[in-house]
Amino acid sequence: MKFVIVFVALFGLALAAPPQSANDAVIVRSDSEVGPESYQYAVETSDGKSASEEGHLENVGSEDEAIAVKGQFSYVGDDGQTYSVSYIADRNGFQPSGAHLPVAPAV
User: What does the alpha-carbon distance between residue 7 and residue 23 come to, in Å, rounded to a whole number?
Assistant: First the structure.
């Protein structure tokens, strides 16, 4: 859990850094809430990027304690198209989904 708190703090700090030039994006919205057993954040920048995530501990205090996360991010690609990815990360691994991502064939 400490890793998650440190990661969220560093992520927010990196996004809050002042722009290096007139072409750099600025943060237009940044929200976060970090608790002992859960967290959530949302960030949007002036260049069309956004990210949000929430996570919580499952089976607190047991040997099966684990963090479950769900979130999304989007950005405008070099081709001008907006790409969005939603994901879940839990004991089943990282599971992204997006219209532009390949999908395994059904067996």
Answer: 26
